Amino acid sequence: MEIWLNTTDMEAIEKGVKMGFVSGITTNPTMVMKSKMPLED
After folding, report:
1. What's residue 35's pLDDT?
2. Distance between CA atoms of 17 and 30, rounded to whole angstroms?
3. 5-31, pLDDT tens digit by residue?
C-alpha cells in the first residue's frame, strides 16, 4: 500500500518522510495559493 500526502504543509511533509511511510506528495494550485508559500518553494 502506498501513502501519499496531499498537502503543502512542509512540517507535515517532513514529519511523514521522517516516519518513513510516505510514498509521495501531491498538491494543486489552489492549495499552493492558500498556503501563501512562495512558488519557488
Report:
1. 80
2. 23
3. 998 888 999 999 999 989 999 988 888
Q: Model's pTM, two decimal places?
A: 0.67
pLDDT at 41: 60
Q: Are 4 and 24 in contact (CB under 8 A)?
A: yes
CA angle 30, 33, 39 (to 5 degrees): 115
Q: Which of 6, 8, 5 is nearest to 41 (CA)?
A: 8
Cα 33 from Cα 20, distance rounded (Å): 28
Could you tell me the residue ranges of all domains in the chain?
Answer: 4-35
Task: List, in sequence order, every residue forming a beta bridge with 24; answer none if it has no partner.
Answer: 4
